Amino acid sequence: MNDGLSLDAHAHVEPTRTSEELAQAGAVLAMTLSLVEAAAAVERRESLVAWGVGCHPRMVDAQAEFDRERFEKLAERAPIVGEVGVDVRWSRVPLDLQLRTFRAALAFAARASRPVSIHSFTATRLVLDELRRTPVPVPILHWWTGTAPETREAVAMGCCFSVHSAVARRSTLRTAVPPERILVESDHGWNDPPAAIPCRVEWVEHLLSVQLKCSREDVRKLGWENFARIVRETGIAALLPPGIRAVLPDEACSADGLRLF
Hints:
261 residues, TIM Barrel
């Protein structure tokens, strides 16, 4: 496995960026905030950018206009669902509407075998309750702020954790999350240049190397190994762009594991 290439497990990238700009981003799982954005994103064919289909819990218009049938048609074409979730602090979207959207996304992911990048900031209990209600193959908790007991509960439920610089400093990550459940992310901003992503990933890798007491290179290798396992468990290899698929070991991309919707 080529562990020299950076892997960002959760970033926001404007779908109108040029191919030249996106080529500077490294390997990226790019999360969309609305179905309008997702519709444009899934038409892109960059070698190293895998687009998710999501509806962010803070996006008022996107939540109001969410259509389950349209979401599922878009998500069939994507290797990951995201960003979806719940936000009880900053969102102006009514909670019942957030939950309706989140439940629709989880139901699809459970049926179609997709990993899900989940916004869980300040809503950790709600998110865990929804995952118990609708288990999905690989829940990936983004911006995790849960307590130590909640974190252990999430680990027992099979959750992975995509970690950016703020989360990487939390002691709970070191004491309650096994290394094989960790992915590295930048949470790169939608309007920021894609060329900044590898540097941001490298900084998170450094912070994690301190927590895990290993080298930054080991953290990068760990991220790729953990992502390869997710690909194998969910059977999404055929939906990944060729540049990312080429980095993964053959067993992660075996045709025997394909489970397309």
